Amino acid sequence: MNKKVIIVGAGPGGLSAGMLLASKGYNVHIYEKKNEVGGRNSFFRLGNYTFDIGPTFFMMKDVLEAVFEKSGKKLEDFVESVRLDPMYRLKFADGRELYPSPDKAKMKETMEKFFPGSFDGYLKYLEKEKIKYDKLIPCLSIPYGKLSDFFSMHLIKALPYLDAHTSLYGVLSRYFDDPDTRIAFTFQAKYIGMSPWTAPGTFSIISFIEHGGGIYHITGGLNKLSHGMAEAFKQLGGNIHLSSPVKKLIVENGKATGVELDGGKTDMADYIVVNEDFAYAMTEIVPKENRKKWTDENLASKGYSCSTFMLYLGVKKEYKDIAHHSIIFAKDYKKNVDEITEEMKLSDDFSFYVQNASVTDKTLAPEGKSAIYVLVPVPNNKSGIDWEKEKSAFRNRILEALEIRGGYEGIRQNIEEEKIVTPADWENEHSVYLGATFNLAHNVGQMLYFRPHNEFEEFKSCYLVGGGTHPGSGLPTIYESGRISAELIMKKDGIKP
User: Fold this and answer.
1) Do 143 and 114 contact (CB within 8 A), yes or no?
2) Which residues contact 416 (CB under 8 A, 6 or more apart)?
3) By CB distance 3.0 to 4.6 Å, which of 130, 229, 267, 439 could disulfide with 467?
Protein backbone atom coordinates (compact mmCIF):
# COMPACT_ATOMS: atom_id res chain seq x y z
CA MET A 1 0.00 0.00 0.00
CA ASN A 2 1.60 3.26 -1.14
CA LYS A 3 -1.31 5.58 -0.37
CA LYS A 4 -0.68 8.49 1.95
CA VAL A 5 -2.80 9.65 4.87
CA ILE A 6 -2.42 12.93 6.77
CA ILE A 7 -3.92 13.09 10.26
CA VAL A 8 -4.50 16.52 11.81
CA GLY A 9 -3.86 16.17 15.54
CA ALA A 10 -2.15 13.52 17.66
CA GLY A 11 -4.99 13.00 20.12
CA PRO A 12 -6.35 9.54 21.04
CA GLY A 13 -8.61 9.29 17.97
CA GLY A 14 -5.86 10.30 15.54
CA LEU A 15 -3.38 7.89 17.13
CA SER A 16 -5.94 5.06 17.01
CA ALA A 17 -6.60 5.64 13.30
CA GLY A 18 -2.88 6.12 12.65
CA MET A 19 -1.88 2.82 14.25
CA LEU A 20 -4.47 0.84 12.31
CA LEU A 21 -3.66 2.47 8.97
CA ALA A 22 0.11 2.23 9.41
CA SER A 23 -0.26 -1.46 10.26
CA LYS A 24 -1.86 -1.97 6.83
CA GLY A 25 1.01 -0.27 5.01
CA TYR A 26 -0.38 3.23 4.57
CA ASN A 27 2.14 6.08 4.60
CA VAL A 28 0.74 7.98 7.59
CA HIS A 29 1.82 11.45 8.75
CA ILE A 30 0.37 13.05 11.89
CA TYR A 31 0.71 16.83 12.27
CA GLU A 32 0.36 18.01 15.87
CA LYS A 33 0.35 21.68 16.89
CA LYS A 34 1.70 21.03 20.41
CA ASN A 35 5.15 19.70 21.27
CA GLU A 36 3.59 16.60 22.87
CA VAL A 37 1.19 13.93 21.64
CA GLY A 38 -2.15 13.26 23.27
CA GLY A 39 -4.12 16.50 23.00
CA ARG A 40 -6.23 16.68 26.15
CA ASN A 41 -4.95 13.18 26.96
CA SER A 42 -1.47 14.67 27.43
CA PHE A 43 0.29 15.85 30.59
CA PHE A 44 2.26 18.70 32.10
CA ARG A 45 4.61 19.16 35.03
CA LEU A 46 4.58 21.71 37.80
CA GLY A 47 7.94 21.49 39.54
CA ASN A 48 8.31 17.84 40.54
CA TYR A 49 4.60 17.06 40.12
CA THR A 50 3.01 15.42 37.05
CA PHE A 51 -0.63 15.93 36.00
CA ASP A 52 -2.89 14.59 33.30
CA ILE A 53 -4.50 17.48 31.43
CA GLY A 54 -7.85 15.78 30.92
CA PRO A 55 -9.12 12.20 31.27
CA THR A 56 -8.38 10.38 34.54
CA PHE A 57 -10.79 7.40 34.30
CA PHE A 58 -9.75 4.50 32.05
CA MET A 59 -12.66 2.17 31.26
CA MET A 60 -13.46 -0.39 28.56
CA LYS A 61 -9.83 -1.41 28.40
CA ASP A 62 -10.77 -4.04 25.82
CA VAL A 63 -11.52 -1.33 23.24
CA LEU A 64 -7.94 -0.03 23.26
CA GLU A 65 -6.55 -3.56 23.57
CA ALA A 66 -8.40 -4.37 20.33
CA VAL A 67 -6.79 -1.38 18.54
CA PHE A 68 -3.36 -2.64 19.56
CA GLU A 69 -4.22 -6.23 18.65
CA LYS A 70 -5.53 -5.25 15.21
CA SER A 71 -2.26 -3.36 14.71
CA GLY A 72 -0.16 -6.38 15.67
CA LYS A 73 0.80 -4.96 19.08
CA LYS A 74 -0.07 -5.55 22.75
CA LEU A 75 -1.20 -2.74 25.03
CA GLU A 76 0.55 -4.28 28.04
CA ASP A 77 3.91 -3.93 26.27
CA PHE A 78 3.50 -0.14 26.39
CA VAL A 79 1.67 0.72 29.64
CA GLU A 80 1.07 -0.65 33.11
CA SER A 81 -2.56 -0.64 34.25
CA VAL A 82 -3.92 -0.92 37.80
CA ARG A 83 -7.55 -1.87 38.53
CA LEU A 84 -8.95 0.39 41.26
CA ASP A 85 -10.81 -0.92 44.29
CA PRO A 86 -12.75 1.02 45.42
CA MET A 87 -13.49 2.55 42.04
CA TYR A 88 -14.18 5.90 43.70
CA ARG A 89 -15.62 7.59 46.77
CA LEU A 90 -19.02 9.30 46.51
CA LYS A 91 -19.76 11.81 49.28
CA PHE A 92 -23.16 13.38 49.78
CA ALA A 93 -24.17 16.53 51.66
CA ASP A 94 -25.53 14.60 54.65
CA GLY A 95 -22.11 13.00 55.14
CA ARG A 96 -23.03 9.56 53.77
CA GLU A 97 -20.33 7.95 51.63
CA LEU A 98 -20.50 5.16 49.07
CA TYR A 99 -17.45 3.24 47.87
CA PRO A 100 -18.42 1.30 44.71
CA SER A 101 -16.28 -1.78 44.25
CA PRO A 102 -15.79 -4.41 41.53
CA ASP A 103 -15.91 -6.95 44.39
CA LYS A 104 -19.57 -7.90 44.89
CA ALA A 105 -19.15 -8.71 48.60
CA LYS A 106 -17.64 -5.26 49.23
CA MET A 107 -20.33 -3.69 47.06
CA LYS A 108 -23.10 -5.29 49.11
CA GLU A 109 -21.53 -4.06 52.34
CA THR A 110 -21.10 -0.45 51.16
CA MET A 111 -24.58 -0.28 49.57
CA GLU A 112 -26.42 -1.71 52.58
CA LYS A 113 -24.59 0.72 54.83
CA PHE A 114 -25.46 3.59 52.50
CA PHE A 115 -29.13 2.70 52.01
CA PRO A 116 -30.47 -0.55 53.50
CA GLY A 117 -32.14 -2.81 50.94
CA SER A 118 -30.50 -1.15 47.93
CA PHE A 119 -28.31 -4.12 46.97
CA ASP A 120 -31.27 -6.06 45.59
CA GLY A 121 -31.90 -3.17 43.20
CA TYR A 122 -28.22 -3.22 42.30
CA LEU A 123 -28.38 -6.88 41.28
CA LYS A 124 -31.44 -6.13 39.14
CA TYR A 125 -29.59 -3.16 37.63
CA LEU A 126 -26.61 -5.36 36.67
CA GLU A 127 -28.86 -7.96 35.09
CA LYS A 128 -30.98 -5.56 33.03
CA GLU A 129 -28.22 -3.17 32.03
CA LYS A 130 -26.00 -6.05 30.87
CA ILE A 131 -28.70 -6.89 28.32
CA LYS A 132 -28.83 -3.27 27.17
CA TYR A 133 -25.03 -3.10 26.97
CA ASP A 134 -24.83 -6.27 24.85
CA LYS A 135 -27.48 -4.93 22.47
CA LEU A 136 -26.16 -1.37 22.23
CA ILE A 137 -22.39 -1.73 21.93
CA PRO A 138 -22.55 -3.30 18.43
CA CYS A 139 -24.67 -0.29 17.34
CA LEU A 140 -21.91 2.08 18.39
CA SER A 141 -19.28 0.11 16.49
CA ILE A 142 -20.58 0.90 13.00
CA PRO A 143 -20.68 4.21 11.10
CA TYR A 144 -23.90 6.11 10.45
CA GLY A 145 -23.09 7.82 7.18
CA LYS A 146 -26.53 7.39 5.60
CA LEU A 147 -30.10 7.23 6.89
CA SER A 148 -30.43 3.60 5.83
CA ASP A 149 -27.87 2.73 8.53
CA PHE A 150 -30.75 3.16 11.00
CA PHE A 151 -32.11 -0.08 9.57
CA SER A 152 -29.08 -2.17 10.47
CA MET A 153 -30.03 -5.39 12.25
CA HIS A 154 -27.92 -4.36 15.25
CA LEU A 155 -29.95 -1.19 15.77
CA ILE A 156 -33.31 -2.82 15.07
CA LYS A 157 -32.57 -5.47 17.71
CA ALA A 158 -31.43 -2.78 20.15
CA LEU A 159 -34.44 -0.44 19.77
CA PRO A 160 -36.51 -1.95 22.61
CA TYR A 161 -33.58 -1.42 24.98
CA LEU A 162 -32.39 2.07 24.01
CA ASP A 163 -34.45 4.16 26.46
CA ALA A 164 -33.65 7.11 24.17
CA HIS A 165 -36.82 8.98 25.14
CA THR A 166 -36.46 8.34 28.87
CA SER A 167 -34.02 10.34 30.96
CA LEU A 168 -30.98 8.67 32.49
CA TYR A 169 -32.34 9.52 35.96
CA GLY A 170 -35.66 7.96 34.97
CA VAL A 171 -33.99 4.68 34.01
CA LEU A 172 -32.18 4.40 37.35
CA SER A 173 -35.43 5.16 39.20
CA ARG A 174 -36.52 1.68 38.11
CA TYR A 175 -33.89 0.14 40.35
CA PHE A 176 -33.51 2.45 43.35
CA ASP A 177 -35.98 4.29 45.59
CA ASP A 178 -33.39 6.50 47.31
CA PRO A 179 -32.65 9.70 45.30
CA ASP A 180 -28.98 9.73 46.34
CA THR A 181 -28.53 6.10 45.24
CA ARG A 182 -29.99 7.05 41.86
CA ILE A 183 -27.48 9.91 41.65
CA ALA A 184 -24.66 7.45 42.44
CA PHE A 185 -25.52 5.64 39.19
CA THR A 186 -26.35 8.68 37.05
CA PHE A 187 -23.67 11.26 37.88
CA GLN A 188 -21.71 9.61 35.03
CA ALA A 189 -23.66 11.91 32.71
CA LYS A 190 -20.88 14.38 33.58
CA TYR A 191 -18.55 12.25 31.44
CA ILE A 192 -20.50 13.52 28.42
CA GLY A 193 -21.11 16.95 29.95
CA MET A 194 -24.85 16.52 30.42
CA SER A 195 -27.52 16.40 33.12
CA PRO A 196 -28.88 13.03 34.32
CA TRP A 197 -32.34 14.57 34.03
CA THR A 198 -31.93 15.41 30.31
CA ALA A 199 -29.34 12.87 29.07
CA PRO A 200 -31.02 10.01 27.18
CA GLY A 201 -31.55 6.85 29.24
CA THR A 202 -29.34 5.09 26.70
CA PHE A 203 -26.36 6.34 28.70
CA SER A 204 -27.16 4.14 31.68
CA ILE A 205 -24.61 1.84 30.04
CA ILE A 206 -21.85 4.23 31.22
CA SER A 207 -22.32 3.36 34.88
CA PHE A 208 -22.74 -0.28 33.89
CA ILE A 209 -19.39 -0.11 32.08
CA GLU A 210 -17.83 0.96 35.39
CA HIS A 211 -19.58 -1.64 37.49
CA GLY A 212 -19.32 -4.42 34.91
CA GLY A 213 -15.76 -3.88 33.74
CA GLY A 214 -14.04 -1.76 36.37
CA ILE A 215 -11.99 1.44 36.33
CA TYR A 216 -8.24 1.48 35.74
CA HIS A 217 -5.36 3.82 36.42
CA ILE A 218 -2.25 3.88 34.24
CA THR A 219 1.06 4.18 36.07
CA GLY A 220 2.46 7.61 35.24
CA GLY A 221 -1.02 8.93 34.41
CA LEU A 222 -3.50 8.27 31.62
CA ASN A 223 -1.31 10.38 29.32
CA LYS A 224 0.85 7.25 29.05
CA LEU A 225 -1.89 5.72 26.90
CA SER A 226 -1.32 8.27 24.14
CA HIS A 227 2.44 8.05 24.51
CA GLY A 228 2.23 4.27 24.22
CA MET A 229 0.07 4.59 21.12
CA ALA A 230 2.52 7.08 19.60
CA GLU A 231 5.41 4.69 20.21
CA ALA A 232 3.49 1.79 18.66
CA PHE A 233 2.53 4.01 15.71
CA LYS A 234 6.19 4.89 15.09
CA GLN A 235 7.19 1.24 15.34
CA LEU A 236 4.60 0.54 12.63
CA GLY A 237 6.29 3.09 10.34
CA GLY A 238 4.16 6.12 11.12
CA ASN A 239 5.50 9.68 11.20
CA ILE A 240 4.64 12.28 13.86
CA HIS A 241 5.43 15.96 13.28
CA LEU A 242 5.25 17.87 16.57
CA SER A 243 4.99 21.67 16.87
CA SER A 244 3.46 21.65 13.38
CA PRO A 245 0.07 23.42 13.38
CA VAL A 246 -2.18 22.93 10.37
CA LYS A 247 -3.44 26.28 9.11
CA LYS A 248 -6.10 24.93 6.76
CA LEU A 249 -7.31 21.94 4.80
CA ILE A 250 -6.78 22.07 1.05
CA VAL A 251 -9.98 21.17 -0.80
CA GLU A 252 -10.01 20.89 -4.59
CA ASN A 253 -12.99 19.94 -6.75
CA GLY A 254 -14.96 18.65 -3.79
CA LYS A 255 -12.12 16.54 -2.40
CA ALA A 256 -9.63 16.99 0.47
CA THR A 257 -6.18 16.79 -1.08
CA GLY A 258 -3.79 18.10 1.55
CA VAL A 259 -3.00 20.57 4.31
CA GLU A 260 -1.32 23.93 4.55
CA LEU A 261 0.91 24.33 7.61
CA ASP A 262 1.38 27.51 9.60
CA GLY A 263 4.61 28.40 7.83
CA GLY A 264 3.00 28.16 4.40
CA LYS A 265 4.35 24.71 3.51
CA THR A 266 1.84 22.30 1.99
CA ASP A 267 1.65 18.52 2.16
CA MET A 268 -0.61 16.47 -0.07
CA ALA A 269 -2.23 13.10 0.59
CA ASP A 270 -4.85 10.64 -0.62
CA TYR A 271 -6.86 10.95 2.57
CA ILE A 272 -7.15 13.51 5.38
CA VAL A 273 -8.23 12.54 8.90
CA VAL A 274 -9.26 15.42 11.18
CA ASN A 275 -8.60 14.89 14.90
CA GLU A 276 -9.39 18.37 16.17
CA ASP A 277 -12.30 19.51 18.32
CA PHE A 278 -15.02 19.33 15.65
CA ALA A 279 -16.50 22.83 15.79
CA TYR A 280 -13.07 24.39 16.26
CA ALA A 281 -11.77 22.55 13.18
CA MET A 282 -14.73 23.67 11.10
CA THR A 283 -14.34 27.34 12.02
CA GLU A 284 -10.54 27.47 11.99
CA ILE A 285 -9.06 25.08 9.40
CA VAL A 286 -11.89 24.26 6.97
CA PRO A 287 -12.49 27.15 4.53
CA LYS A 288 -15.98 28.66 4.68
CA GLU A 289 -16.55 28.09 0.99
CA ASN A 290 -16.18 24.34 1.54
CA ARG A 291 -18.83 24.17 4.27
CA LYS A 292 -22.43 24.08 3.11
CA LYS A 293 -23.95 22.14 6.03
CA TRP A 294 -21.59 22.97 8.88
CA THR A 295 -21.67 26.75 8.55
CA ASP A 296 -20.61 29.02 11.41
CA GLU A 297 -24.28 29.78 12.08
CA ASN A 298 -25.27 26.10 12.16
CA LEU A 299 -22.39 25.25 14.48
CA ALA A 300 -23.34 28.06 16.86
CA SER A 301 -26.93 26.79 17.00
CA LYS A 302 -25.97 23.30 18.16
CA GLY A 303 -26.15 22.01 21.71
CA TYR A 304 -22.82 21.73 23.52
CA SER A 305 -21.67 20.09 26.71
CA CYS A 306 -20.76 21.92 29.88
CA SER A 307 -17.22 23.06 30.57
CA THR A 308 -14.89 22.49 33.51
CA PHE A 309 -12.94 24.67 35.92
CA MET A 310 -9.67 22.94 36.79
CA LEU A 311 -7.24 23.18 39.69
CA TYR A 312 -3.97 21.23 39.53
CA LEU A 313 -2.28 21.33 42.93
CA GLY A 314 1.15 20.15 44.03
CA VAL A 315 0.68 19.63 47.78
CA LYS A 316 3.38 18.90 50.36
CA LYS A 317 1.11 16.49 52.23
CA GLU A 318 -0.28 12.99 51.69
CA TYR A 319 -3.93 11.95 51.94
CA LYS A 320 -3.49 8.22 52.44
CA ASP A 321 -7.04 7.64 53.73
CA ILE A 322 -8.83 9.28 50.77
CA ALA A 323 -9.66 7.25 47.66
CA HIS A 324 -7.94 7.71 44.28
CA HIS A 325 -11.13 9.28 42.86
CA SER A 326 -13.75 11.27 44.80
CA ILE A 327 -16.99 12.94 43.72
CA ILE A 328 -18.41 15.40 46.25
CA PHE A 329 -22.05 16.29 45.58
CA ALA A 330 -23.90 19.56 46.15
CA LYS A 331 -26.75 19.61 48.66
CA ASP A 332 -29.19 20.01 45.78
CA TYR A 333 -27.49 18.17 42.94
CA LYS A 334 -30.31 18.73 40.44
CA LYS A 335 -30.29 22.48 41.09
CA ASN A 336 -26.52 22.53 40.61
CA VAL A 337 -26.77 20.65 37.31
CA ASP A 338 -29.64 22.84 36.07
CA GLU A 339 -27.64 25.98 36.85
CA ILE A 340 -24.73 24.62 34.80
CA THR A 341 -26.67 23.34 31.80
CA GLU A 342 -29.86 25.44 31.67
CA GLU A 343 -29.36 28.70 33.56
CA MET A 344 -25.69 28.93 32.56
CA LYS A 345 -24.48 30.42 35.83
CA LEU A 346 -22.04 29.58 38.60
CA SER A 347 -23.60 27.67 41.48
CA ASP A 348 -23.25 28.83 45.06
CA ASP A 349 -23.49 25.15 46.02
CA PHE A 350 -21.40 23.17 43.55
CA SER A 351 -20.32 19.56 43.06
CA PHE A 352 -16.73 18.67 42.29
CA TYR A 353 -14.40 15.78 41.43
CA VAL A 354 -10.97 15.18 42.96
CA GLN A 355 -8.22 12.82 41.84
CA ASN A 356 -5.82 11.88 44.61
CA ALA A 357 -3.72 9.71 42.30
CA SER A 358 -0.66 9.68 44.55
CA VAL A 359 -2.47 7.22 46.83
CA THR A 360 -2.08 4.67 43.99
CA ASP A 361 0.82 5.97 41.90
CA LYS A 362 4.04 7.16 43.56
CA THR A 363 5.53 8.39 40.26
CA LEU A 364 3.39 11.54 40.13
CA ALA A 365 4.65 13.44 43.18
CA PRO A 366 7.75 13.47 45.43
CA GLU A 367 7.79 11.20 48.48
CA GLY A 368 5.34 12.40 51.15
CA LYS A 369 3.54 14.75 48.75
CA SER A 370 0.45 14.63 46.51
CA ALA A 371 -0.58 15.61 42.98
CA ILE A 372 -4.19 16.74 43.45
CA TYR A 373 -6.41 17.24 40.37
CA VAL A 374 -9.73 19.06 40.89
CA LEU A 375 -12.51 19.37 38.29
CA VAL A 376 -15.64 21.46 38.81
CA PRO A 377 -18.35 21.24 36.11
CA VAL A 378 -19.36 24.77 35.06
CA PRO A 379 -21.24 26.35 32.12
CA ASN A 380 -19.57 26.53 28.71
CA ASN A 381 -18.69 29.90 27.24
CA LYS A 382 -22.18 30.60 25.94
CA SER A 383 -22.67 31.76 29.54
CA GLY A 384 -20.69 34.95 28.99
CA ILE A 385 -19.01 34.52 32.41
CA ASP A 386 -15.96 36.77 32.77
CA TRP A 387 -13.43 34.23 34.01
CA GLU A 388 -10.64 36.72 34.54
CA LYS A 389 -12.95 38.45 36.98
CA GLU A 390 -14.36 35.31 38.60
CA LYS A 391 -11.51 32.79 38.71
CA SER A 392 -9.71 33.96 41.85
CA ALA A 393 -12.82 33.99 44.05
CA PHE A 394 -14.03 30.70 42.57
CA ARG A 395 -10.65 29.10 43.18
CA ASN A 396 -10.83 30.15 46.85
CA ARG A 397 -14.32 28.68 47.19
CA ILE A 398 -13.10 25.38 45.74
CA LEU A 399 -10.16 25.20 48.14
CA GLU A 400 -12.50 25.84 51.07
CA ALA A 401 -14.82 23.09 49.81
CA LEU A 402 -11.88 20.70 49.45
CA GLU A 403 -11.08 21.11 53.12
CA ILE A 404 -14.56 21.30 54.63
CA ARG A 405 -16.57 18.98 52.34
CA GLY A 406 -13.86 16.87 50.73
CA GLY A 407 -11.79 16.01 53.78
CA TYR A 408 -8.52 17.38 52.39
CA GLU A 409 -7.50 18.99 55.66
CA GLY A 410 -4.79 21.63 55.53
CA ILE A 411 -4.59 21.64 51.75
CA ARG A 412 -4.50 25.43 51.40
CA GLN A 413 -1.45 25.91 53.61
CA ASN A 414 0.42 23.05 51.89
CA ILE A 415 0.11 24.09 48.23
CA GLU A 416 3.51 24.60 46.63
CA GLU A 417 2.55 24.32 42.94
CA GLU A 418 -0.69 25.40 41.29
CA LYS A 419 -2.29 25.82 37.88
CA ILE A 420 -5.81 27.00 37.03
CA VAL A 421 -7.61 26.23 33.75
CA THR A 422 -10.91 28.03 33.13
CA PRO A 423 -13.46 27.52 30.32
CA ALA A 424 -11.87 30.54 28.60
CA ASP A 425 -8.50 28.77 28.76
CA TRP A 426 -10.00 25.59 27.28
CA GLU A 427 -11.18 27.67 24.33
CA ASN A 428 -8.18 29.94 23.87
CA GLU A 429 -5.27 27.69 24.81
CA HIS A 430 -6.61 24.21 24.02
CA SER A 431 -8.73 24.99 20.93
CA VAL A 432 -12.01 23.76 22.43
CA TYR A 433 -15.05 25.42 20.86
CA LEU A 434 -16.97 27.38 23.54
CA GLY A 435 -14.76 25.66 26.10
CA ALA A 436 -17.22 22.72 25.90
CA THR A 437 -14.78 20.08 27.10
CA PHE A 438 -17.08 17.15 26.25
CA ASN A 439 -17.85 18.46 22.75
CA LEU A 440 -21.28 18.46 21.09
CA ALA A 441 -24.05 17.46 23.50
CA HIS A 442 -25.20 13.84 23.31
CA ASN A 443 -28.93 14.43 22.94
CA VAL A 444 -31.08 12.33 20.63
CA GLY A 445 -30.83 14.91 17.85
CA GLN A 446 -27.00 14.85 17.94
CA MET A 447 -26.28 11.12 18.04
CA LEU A 448 -25.66 8.38 15.46
CA TYR A 449 -26.59 9.70 11.97
CA PHE A 450 -27.30 13.15 13.41
CA ARG A 451 -23.75 13.58 14.67
CA PRO A 452 -21.00 14.69 12.25
CA HIS A 453 -20.20 11.61 10.18
CA ASN A 454 -16.96 9.65 10.39
CA GLU A 455 -16.73 9.93 6.60
CA PHE A 456 -17.18 13.69 6.38
CA GLU A 457 -20.21 14.68 4.33
CA GLU A 458 -19.01 18.09 3.05
CA PHE A 459 -16.31 16.81 0.69
CA LYS A 460 -14.62 13.54 -0.24
CA SER A 461 -11.48 11.89 1.15
CA CYS A 462 -11.93 13.50 4.57
CA TYR A 463 -12.63 11.57 7.76
CA LEU A 464 -13.38 12.64 11.32
CA VAL A 465 -12.21 11.17 14.61
CA GLY A 466 -12.63 12.37 18.20
CA GLY A 467 -15.47 13.28 20.54
CA GLY A 468 -17.29 15.45 17.97
CA THR A 469 -18.09 12.58 15.65
CA HIS A 470 -19.74 9.17 16.10
CA PRO A 471 -19.78 7.40 18.60
CA GLY A 472 -19.11 10.41 20.90
CA SER A 473 -16.86 11.76 23.65
CA GLY A 474 -14.92 9.73 26.22
CA LEU A 475 -11.71 7.79 25.62
CA PRO A 476 -13.23 4.40 24.60
CA THR A 477 -15.62 5.96 22.08
CA ILE A 478 -12.86 8.21 20.74
CA TYR A 479 -10.67 5.14 20.15
CA GLU A 480 -13.65 3.60 18.37
CA SER A 481 -14.04 6.67 16.15
CA GLY A 482 -10.44 6.17 15.05
CA ARG A 483 -11.06 2.52 14.28
CA ILE A 484 -14.28 3.26 12.36
CA SER A 485 -12.66 5.96 10.21
CA ALA A 486 -9.55 3.87 9.55
CA GLU A 487 -11.67 0.92 8.46
CA LEU A 488 -13.77 3.16 6.18
CA ILE A 489 -10.54 4.20 4.44
CA MET A 490 -9.41 0.58 4.17
CA LYS A 491 -12.78 -0.37 2.69
CA LYS A 492 -12.30 2.29 -0.03
CA ASP A 493 -9.10 0.53 -1.01
CA GLY A 494 -10.47 -3.00 -0.79
CA ILE A 495 -8.48 -3.86 2.32
CA LYS A 496 -10.06 -6.10 4.94
CA PRO A 497 -9.62 -4.76 8.50
Assistant:
1) no
2) 47, 314, 315, 316
3) 439
Q: Residue 12 in contact with residue 26, Cβ under 8 Å?
A: no
Whether omega before 497 lies within 30 degrees of 0, making that bond cis, reads no
Are 359 and 320 within 8 A, CB to CB?
yes
- How many Å apart are CA 349 and CA 333, to the nearest integer? 9
**Lowest mean pLDDT, pick from 131-135, 143-147, 411-415, 455-459:** 143-147
CA 51 to chain centre: 16
DSSP 230: H
> What distances in angstroms separate CA 63 from CA 84, 223, 265, 299, 483, one per listed residue?
18, 17, 36, 30, 10
| Residue 141: burial class (beta carbons within 10 Å; 0-12, 13-18, 19+) | middle
Whether the per-residue pLDDT at 160 is higher than 70: the answer is no
Tell me 46's DSSP state: E
- Residue 219: which residues within 8 A CB-CB, separation 6 or more? 79, 80, 81, 82, 361, 363
267-281 tens-digit pLDDT: 999 999 999 999 999
- pTM flag (> 0.85): yes
Contact 450, 475 (CB under 8 A): no
